[in-house]
């Protein structure tokens, strides 16, 4: 049964016992030797494949190229085998924290992997690169890797269920640093005291503002979770060397909650698995069919449906030829204010905006998906596509509005009613309207076409085919699908190697290192 850990701020004079601190409770979950359930193992395999899919598709993109170059400018650390870097041959190794960095950027760059949304939002697949890098470095087997990943997902998602960061303009990766540190602790079989110190250090070094996801969004959006993963690896290393961390990191009077979140009177109830309770959080997360911010997934599917049902909409006209006057997407508070017109970011309507910005503009995404009947991870973001005059005209007619019921459903803890979509109202020049709605994306477990292993494999083949040889695609899938049974040597091979010439086709930028 789940244990609720009550978290509030305590004065230093209270001398809060370590066993009453959230970092300690997280560490206790990490050291629990409970077996990983079979359905959880299968989903972990799916997400390892999913991460490799989106990493393959991003191998030649600028942020990934830069991060890879940084990683390869650092040698393998002395105390281990080293870790592989996505795209590079198996014998090309770097230190695990730099592999976590490079691979984390590759996974995150296209905003195309899994998600979990609750009080906060997250991409829990971001836990996999740092945990895998450490597994390769120390020679861990597949069973240990699975246990570590199960912990990473569990801790991040439990924090996301309870503690909102974005409300205070703190970036969501502040939950990722502690979860990745905990997952690495499970992988390595560390004791609770060491993991507790690593969790606290990882949180302390990964609290940053949300400006990385505001206005003109920069390439740092892809680097932010990779930085958290890198910090988690380093935090574990420091803790293993006996170094201590700020405490209580959550509850202290000068800690994260008191000064970055809800303040000295704050209180949170964080649900954590009880001793002996399986870590099953990953089953509550969901991946993306489309390369866009998760809250855009259902809207793309609704636009795709409308495109097929009402062909005239493709030319911004109704069935009677009347021009579209306006499109209003009635949706949750979060969707309205983060990726909708409620953000008050003029960049969300700018055809010259960066890919990262367009990815966080639901007016743009809905306009393109309505016209094209789908979404493409490259073509839908091309500058020429964004600048098409008819698209710009339609795009500027689309706004969002917060709807109390959709906000309630967004925050619902009942998985059967939790929703990330909304209701669209298209108004034509003659005053007539077209109304439709969608609750969850088609690929969601409760959607029209839930993702299964077959879909994850198909996504990998689609995205990997341009950059990996057919034999390499099959080699990776064969390994990934045997994940819990892999030997340490086979975990070393859990990498994707690009076709000869692919990586050389893009410049490797020089820097300080």
From TrEMBL:
All residue ranges annotated as the MmgE/PrpD C-terminal domain in the record? 290-482
- Quote the SUPFAM superfamilies the UniProt record gives: 2-methylcitrate dehydratase PrpD (SSF103378)
**Start and end residues of each MmgE/PrpD N-terminal domain:** 21-267
The record's section on PANTHER family has: 2-METHYLCITRATE DEHYDRATASE, 2-METHYLCITRATE DEHYDRATASE-RELATED
Please report which protein family the annotation says this sequence is part of: Belongs to the PrpD family.
The name this protein goes by in its record: MmgE/PrpD family protein
Q: What is the source species?
A: Microbacterium flavum
Taxonomy, top ranks, is:
Bacteria, Bacillati, Actinomycetota, Actinomycetes, Micrococcales
